[in-house]
Amino acid sequence: MSRIKGCFEQLKKQNKKALIPYVAAGDPNPDITVDLMHAMVDSGADIIELGVPFSDPMADGPVIQKASERALVYGTSLTDVLAMIKSFREKNNTTPVVLMGYLNPIEIMGYERFAKAAQEAGVDGVLTVDIPPEEAEDYVPALKAHDLDPVFLLSPTTTRERMQHICQYASGFIYYVSVKGVTGTSALDTDEVATRLKIINEVTKLPVGVGFGIKNAETAAAIGKVSEAVVVGSALVNLVEQNAHNADGNEKIIKDISQVLSSMRNALDA
Description:
The protein is α/β, with parallel strands linked by helices. The chain has a single domain (3-269), classed as TIM Barrel. The protein is 48% helix and 14% strand. An 8-stranded parallel barrel has the order 1-2-3-4-5-6-7-8, surrounded by 9 helices. Strand 6 (174-177), helix 9 (190-203) and strand 7 (208-211) form a beta-alpha-beta unit. Helix 6 packs parallel to helix 7 (139-145) and helix 10 (217-224) packs parallel to helix 12 (249-269). The longest helix is centred in the last third of the chain and has 21 residues, at 249-269.
């Protein structure tokens, strides 16, 4: 059983919802990432979504675009990100880690080489934003051959027929993009999300996580009532940006992100 599947099954037994924080690896510097991953787990994260810095993050708004830019100043590569996860695994062998990024770095490395390296580093799932199932005939088998879950996106405009097609390729969980637009820019309509999730749950038995719009404990709790997981990204990356250039920036980032996640964890559990 994959770590992701095991995590969701355990949470279901406990009647709890998964909290999935996103941060960009290497942001604002490579030294913080592993310590921040451990701190997020200590603050209630169930699964970690780790962004692979990329020069053209088309699905992301300004906040996460800047995160990639800060990480790329240090030359943070896909290989570096895998090394960070390997280091994280030295102390934590249970929390699932999902890579979130774009196809270019994976294509350059090659599907088979990437999948093997990711498995060896301790990656559990891969969410590649810009690969549709029609172009994933070689990609998905390479991931599954190395016990990696391919995570796919559904959006408010995805038709039921399209959902069925996409879900045939997915495993681990489905990521529902709750707004029409890029990350960190739009208000969340909880009623609309609930309506869409009802349709998705008729199409697939996979757990569904909701992202793009979770800003605080209140929105996390609201979405947690209708989904199996909430994904929070821009709200955390904003805290990184605010402290990126401070002398004690890394320490302050870890403290601030830990406080936000703890409040979300408490709200979800309540």
